[in-house]
User: Fold this.
Amino acid sequence: MTFRKLDDIGDVAGKVVLVRVDFNLPMQDGQVTEDSRVRAAAPTILELSAKGAKVLLLAHFGRPKGARDASQSLALVLPAITKVLGREVMFVPEIAGDIVKQAVGILGNGDIALLENTRFWPGEEKNNPALAKAIAANADIYVNDAFSAAHRAHASTEGLAHVLPAYAGRSMQAELEALEKALGQPVKPVAAVVGGAKVSSKLGVLTHLVTKVDHLIIGGGMANTFLAARGVDVGKSLCEHDLASTCEEILEAADKAGCTVHLPYEVVVSKTFEANPPSLRTCNVHEVAADEMILDAGPAAIEALSDALKTCRTLVWNGPMGAFEMAPFDAGTVALAKTAAALTKEGSLVSVAGGGDTVAALHHAGVAGDFSYISTAGGAFLEWMEGRELPGVKALEA
Assistant:
């Protein structure tokens, strides 16, 4: 896809630029605990500021359901934003109207202001055109730098793009270019790793991927459901037995599309879910006892999967191979992640990963910095993997 980006804007000196960012930051005891979303948006904000624009930041925070709530005001995250940007940022307790107009009049070229939580207004989540026009009335240009909110057709993520000249920010641009390399126009062969607890949460992803990739590697609790569908007794493992026919349909679709589905043939099992349990053992999937649960892929299975990755040129990853939060059930995820990272570093693999658990697992494995691109988006990344059109992205197409 082709989309408008910052390079296409031209001179912004003295212009008012609305920048949609994702500052829905985690907080504890009144303090922001993780600021990666601010750091991701900083290049766009600072570039526009350096070019003389008056930058107005739009974001949501929490779920106030269309009403003002002091506990969900963006004023709470202002200190974290100013710290990352290294700049003074004005806070404006509105998103439209005379108060915003006055603030724009006070701002000098290159100054930055943070507007209030967009979700305080009921028209935001309803994508109310009147609200979008009211917000746009105080601005000249709209920039969307919040891919993680691009799957929402809200006034600040989609509506504004129909009222003002609209462009992708640097973070959005990097995300879209990485995703295009992963599934849009990838270098083949393409592999996908899809893990996690439940097949039901990723039915759309699996159904779409078998038509797009050459190798589909299924891990985590999801693999147990597929194994059970193939007649394997998975003991007391996490398993959605009622989805057996659905799994069969996905496997048949994969066969028709020429996609090889990889399931672990060797697994790590235990009678209890605890760190380094006494009942821990590795066995063939057909040797799982009735009182055991599968908690990770075994080393031989991971080695086979690593060999499959070595034949591929593109990888998209969402979800762990096992219960990675607890040792030793993190071993499979860590080993496969290290293989992917090594292949990426040597230049033979383009690797794109996304999703909260995935990002945590790659950081745990110490290889997050070695992947080609890591998306911090949750729902938007999954919907992209499902092949769904993202409203916030569609609105930026050239």
Q: What stands out?
A: The longest strand covers residues 16-20. The chain has two domains: 6-171, 186-385.
